């Protein structure tokens, strides 16, 4: 087998330029399904919106549920006495963008370009990517704990080894277990989408996030509280838990190295996930300091919703643009309309498939946001409705357009590199803007004791 790189074209045939594609659309339709030519999925804006709507709502209600869980567990002993756990929250929730959504984007592109038509190639690709994801989850979970310890120690000047070990154990165990569960769900979604004829680019990434936040938060709360109860009587338990999951890493590395695509990412795919973890941890520090203010503690119920909606929508757009580039451009080459300086109108103004998807996604923000906030209100877990979600999504869609094309121009596969950065930026922007909104409400006189609580 020859060498394989993630930046190599996923289609062996010569790509068509946008003009050539338009000129051959009718010919492609005449060739029919027996021609062996893989065509870009053709969708009307309505069909696109309908395919995106259900998983988007599922993902949104998943983030609402995660916010409800976080609102409850913030009063547990582990969260009250080891507040650095709040720094872990955005970093661990961000793993769905670093790992699950990235996996979904890679496999969606593989489905659309025909790389999963062969059963042997399909399962080799799936197993290699799942093993790679477990390696990355373990390492990123450990580094997230280190970042939480450092970020918690710098402003306070206090360091407790027992708390640091508990943070490390909770983070690594949560990252490993949540990643494994979500990876299995993700593979089922991709395979199911292929069999039912649904474009996985539209549904895979939001479904990856639908229960991701809830599963991750529930596991983090359960493990951290359990280890906290053992802290005095069985202090060695935290160390054993951390060591167990870390010692599994070499096994996953051996498995992931069996497939050339995952082997390449095993060596070169660390930059985006680690950088994204650092960005999310900064958002976690903002959350930690905001929650520490008794007047603003209610922010936690909104954090997963605000961060999640932006990340879910921008991941769909990133995945679609990446698939489009894999079809029509060789790495290093971009369509003519994306050359030159970037300007925001380029993202939303136009009739191309990527313009239409950006328009559909931005139109989903307001009604989706109203539904999710009203759900929180009905559950009597929220007081304020002033949130920055529209601004956050608008910025993220623009950044996605620029970032995906820039990465492709530089020879990097945006399926593997763009989504971690985008979802991490969503966490940072969402948390920062939400904290500013809560501070603004307090300043202008909305000083009820239940602000957001």
From TrEMBL:
Keyword Iron: no
Domain of life according to the entry: Eukaryota
GO molecular function, one term: inorganic cation transmembrane transporter activity
GO CC terms: plasma membrane
GO biological process entries: metal ion transport
InterPro entries, alphabetized: SLC41_membr_dom (IPR006667), SLC41_membr_dom_sf (IPR036739), SLC41A1-3 (IPR045349)
Comp. bias regions, Acidic residues: 19-32
Protein's name according to its UniProt entry: Solute carrier family 41 member
Source organism of this protein record: Takifugu rubripes (Japanese pufferfish)
